[in-house]
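Journal club side-thread
Mid-discussion, someone asked how the predicted structure for our own chain would compare to the paper's figures. Pasting it here so we can look after the session.
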Amino acid sequence: MLTTFVYHALGLFSCVCLLCFASSLVSAADAGGAPVLQALECTSTAAGNYTQDGAYAANLGRLLAMLPNETVSKNGGFFNGTVGNGTATVYGLAMCAADFSRADCMDCLVAAGISAGGVVKRCPGSTTVSAMFDQCLLRYSDSSFFGTAHINITYVSDGEILTGRDSVSSVMKNALPFVTSQAASSPARFAVSETNPYTLAQCTWDLPPDACKGCLDALAANVSATFPATARGERKSYSCRVRYDVNTSFMVVPFNLSTGSAGTPTSSLAGPGSVNSAKNNGQYDVLSCLPMTFGIRLNICIFKNFI
């Protein structure tokens, strides 16, 4: 009896210690810090710039004000929709980066949209703006861009030079097509590998599978060309992203979509200043996998609620 009690007590103590250690790593990883602007495009259509006292400016203000809550709290990390109608219609899209926390994405969208240093201040009068941050993506325009992939690479990041890189390179070139295919076929347009080299692929949800795959393939081709020299890196367009890392001890944070479908509009415009959105009402869980070695190799997976 005593032996059994001691055995279970030691087992419980070990589990508690392991979970505490893992939780400390998750907390550290969730602290993304201030959002970093990585790319910005400010343009206008043939109609020209909007005026600060016009209907487009008012509708844009409404869109940017509601995006953080609509994207993060109500829609699990993505939003696309319209505000207003006619020539004053604003088409807007926002997406959370899957490897940052809910709080990070919320802060990012607030900073991008309604803060004093937001994109409206950076692009005064521009009717079409695409802003890429490390933690979120924001786009708006006076014409619809939904469902069309932007495949031009707008952000590139690479890590240190690898030694003995040829063997890892072949693994990466096999891993990328699989992960990009999984992302394109996923309702959440997202996939991530759980083995080294870790790879992540993510598209905006408005893209159909073939457009998502084409976007990711363009980025993956660039990664394959440059990967043999670097240990980690990322390629981004305004519609998709690919990230990889061969040395990480912390699994990137994926979303797990349980319900919903990508990019399905729910209603039509009802009148001036109205809001029409395409929502995916699925609930997400954040899954973090920590490879650890205690005599044997274990993958410790920690779940927490995203919404």
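Post-session note: The domain at 37-146 is CATH 3.30.430.20 (Killer Toxin P4; Chain A).
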